[in-house]
Amino acid sequence: MGLIVPNIKNPFYSKICWQIESILNRKKYKTIICNTNHNPDKEKSYIQALENNGVDGIILVSGENLESLLQISRNSDISCVLMDRTLQTNDIYSVNLDNVYGGKLATQHLIKSGHKKIAFITSSNTQAERERLKGYKMSLKEYNISVPEEYIISKPEEDFKSDYSNLLNLLELSNPPTAIFASNDYKAIKILGIFREKNISVPGDISLIGFDDIETSYLLGLTTIKQPIAKMTELTINNLLEKQNKDIDAKKNKSDILKPELILRKTTRKI
What we know:
This protein has 271 residues and is of the alpha/beta class. The chain has helices at 11-26, 40-52, 66-75, 99-112, 127-142, 165-171, 185-197, 215-220, 229-244; strands spanning 2-5, 32-35, 57-61, 79-83, 93-97, 118-122, 152-154, 179-182, 207-209, 224-226, 256-258, 261-263.
């Protein structure tokens, strides 16, 4: 089986890889893991390489080259499924999170804690992050809260450690935010580390919430939005193997969208 992920350094995707490989191995399948670094051309080449090498199935996680996968699904015996991505057609089964709801959940937690000046840090590399941004904006509009453009920062997450000037500039604005919503825990943990280096107290000086609930988030006390990774991988593999065994009637033209939950820890506070 081929498994394509966008960034294996992100612990969220690392955990997905570990869980999928472990389950498939117990079912006597070998897993080829491909890391794209959010590069669409690299992702497309991996899809083609997996097809050329005759894999039994392909799992595309947070992918963008959906047309390439659609062509394989329609024109070959290779089973294809999507994870952490929604497709507008029913040709391929997908399991995803309601990321708009998750974005609203995080933002509303901050608003109900008294915050009206809420920044959003993202890279917009994935559909999930774009939907979380949408949920953030929807919640602000619902509560009649407007934020300046400077409050929304889109920056590749790999650049945060080497160039965090935009992040620190937020705190130097004439009307700085009192809270930050990071589009995933990987970014939130990097932000937390930068703030600690600069002696910026979290949540004393600024509140911080992430998204995913990776294991490190628990250790650092990060307030976050939890994704049900185990359930997502279970549904993905079950459908993949059903397709492989030609037993697809039960899942035909069906996708699963799961709900996230708020995990309260120590990086947000009421003001």
